[in-house]
Write a structure and sequence with these properties.
- The chain has a 5-stranded mixed beta sheet with strand order 1-2-3-5-4, with helices on one face.
- Helix content is 62%, strand content 12%.
- The chain has 8 helices and 5 strands.
- The radius of gyration is 35 Å and the shape is rod-shaped.
- The chain starts with 8 loop residues before the first helix and ends in a 5-residue tail after the last strand.
- Helix 3 crosses helix 8.
- By secondary structure, it is α+β, with helices and mostly antiparallel strands.
Length: 321
């Protein structure tokens, strides 16, 4: 039995029921079985059996017709929020129409979410840039003026005050270094000036200077160029992975690599820290997944207790931004 592909669900069920009833009527008309005005038990048994056969046949046909719809519902329940999924357009009639409609809706929602994420991340980067600029221009310059004033004051102060003024000047210098480091983390100017590899090298150096872990970095030569958006995503994912290695993993050694694999550029951050079991999407991991989805990259996090953690980002070359 082949149901027309354009038939609505209501008429599909009516058609199945109609076919069953027509076949049952033909059987009663063409078969030698008949019912008298005063039915005997044998005739009642025949009627009951016939009705039972019709009901079972009807139920089986309806179940067969609605089976694709049930499979569609099951797949809809298993859709991940962050993983774009296309439902198989199987079945016929309304079931295929529902699958096509859901696929179209999910495609539009995915594009709208990606566009919204792009706007949010662009606003976030702009805010980072503004804060970094203010730290550099206002706080940094103010601390520089304080350092120059303290240095001048040391020349005029009595000898017994020189050590204390020197200590204050060193504290101010340390504060200025902290402000500059925070500004660099907020806005990687080296990423715009010297490129992704240099920015990652500076990030690894800064990480090694301010943590107990050693960093080994490996950058393959001749890496293809990525879009500015993809470079920012790679940098931020590496930054978050290094931060997690220092803050949560208690790692002693970290490997940072960037290489070309097929038509993609692959970033890997591997540490020998404590690892974990049972991956949960915290704010850091959720942010990395959202950034990866923005440039259609694949993000994977592999970890086992006492065997470290590996964060792997695979960015397609020339992919849409």
């Amino acid at each position: 039995m082949r149901v027309p592909t354009h038939l609505p669900l209501f008429w599909t069920v009516c058609l199945i029921n109609g076919v069953v009833f027509v076949v049952g009527a033909l059987v009663l008309v063409l078969s030698p079985a008949s019912v008298s005005a005063d039915p005997v038990p044998s005739e009642i048994v025949v009627i009951v059996l016939g009705l039972t056969v019709m009901l079972l046949t009807n139920a089986l046909l309806i179940r067969w017709a609605l089976a694709p719809l049930q499979r569609l519902i099951t797949r809809l329940e298993g859709i991940d929020d962050l993983a774009p999924t296309r439902l198989p357009e199987e079945g016929w009639g309304p079931v295929r129409g529902i699958a096509e409609g859901v696929n179209g809706l999910m495609a539009r929602l995915t594009e709208e979410r990606r566009a919204g994420d792009a706007r949010a991340l662009a606003a976030q980067e702009a805010e980072r840039h503004r804060i970094a600029q203010e730290l550099h221009d206002e706080v940094g310059q103010s601390l520089t003026v304080v350092l120059l004033g303290l240095k001048q004051l040391e020349r005029l102060a009595p000898a017994e005050l020189v050590p204390e003024l020197g200590a204050v000047r060193e504290s101010a210098r340390a504060g200025l270094d902290d402000v500059r480091r925070v500004a660099r983390r907020l806005r990687p100017g080296v990423l715009e000036d010297l490129g992704l590899a240099s920015a990652l090298a500076a990030l690894a150096t800064d990480f090694a200077d301010h943590s107990a872990a050693s960093v080994r970095r490996t950058f393959a030569p001749g890496l293809p160029a990525l879009s500015p958006e993809a470079e920012v995503v790679v940098y931020r994912v590496a930054q978050e992975a290094l931060t997690n290695a220092a803050r949560h993993a208690d790692a002693q050694a970290v490997e940072l690599s960037l290489q070309k694999l097929g038509d993609s550029v692959v970033l890997e951050v591997r540490d020998d820290g404590r690892g974990f079991e049972g991956l949960t999407d915290g704010s850091g991991l959720m942010g990395m997944r959202e950034r990866a989805a923005l440039v259609r990259a694949e993000l994977s996090v592999i970890s086992r207790p006492r065997h470290g953690t590996t964060v792997r980002l695979k960015v397609p070359v020339g992919g849409p931004a």
